[in-house]
Amino acid sequence: MMRNGLLSPTLTPVREDLSIDTVRFAEHVNWLLEWGCHGVVLFGTTGEAVSFSADERRQALDAIIDLGVPAQKLMVGVGTCSITESASLARHALQSGCRDLLMLPPFFYKNPTDEGLIAHFEALVERIGPYEADLHLYHIPPVAGVGFSVDLVGRLRERIPAIVGIKDSGGDQDNTLALIRAHEGLAVFCGSEPFLLETMRAGGAGCITATANINAAAIRTAYDGWQESDADERQAALTDFRQRIQAFNPVPAMKALLASERQQPVWKNVRPPFWPLPDDRLEALKQELRAGALGIPEVRS
Known about the structure:
Layout: E1 5-9, H1 22-34, E2 39-42, H2 54-66, E3 74-77, H3 83-95, E4 100-103, H4 114-128, E5 134-139, H5 141-144, H6 150-159, E6 163-168, H7 173-182, E7 187-190, H8 196-201, E8 206-208, H9 212-224, H10 231-246, H11 250-262, H12 279-291
Parallel strand pairs: 1-2, 1-8, 2-3, 3-4, 4-5, 5-6, 6-7, 7-8
């Protein structure tokens, strides 16, 4: 059960033929856990989830568990536009020993009614069946084009008790704070570490952030020390680091940094429509990080 802490939505390493490199995948997930993440999210936005088929996602989950990744430390992204496909992904994750699921809203048709979204999730949960599951909503309207209003979250929780958390990646901290105030007992995770300290001070659960792929130790230290006297300074350093990464395309940028620092060129690969970060942009990224408060973190596995 992941009701609080630092979680990383992991990058997904791919080979030259664009298939998932499951050995490196397992190594990276375990590295994230070793470097301070309480859990790891598979197949979120950072993991290029919608670029992989349901079969690829199921096979990758099976492979990394077989390679020693603890299933109980995984939150599995199962959101698709299809109720049937999402339910299949969810059942597979639960049968594999994972309890926590991250659920996007159906994202192709824009401006759905709240009633339509409620019907979608009720049908989805019915098809998942009698498994013990902790469901976490994934609010990322800048990307999905569809989100969860504060009111809708309350209505969904009334109808679906298995909903225990939400990742708020909307980029609006006022919305995160409103969710915390409105929904007692809901685990509210901010979706980016610049909001970590304010989220914790308001009673939030923690952070699910992409940048933990390359900066987990520093974010974990800030999470653990949010009540310490230097919390604001730590937060400022994290925010500076995130802003420097954000100036690049974060998924190709973080993969390129891992490829360079680990001396594993395969890490630079992305699935189209992403495109690998050019070498000159990688050097610019390294210069940016060296100029920041945290520098280039240790990312070797």
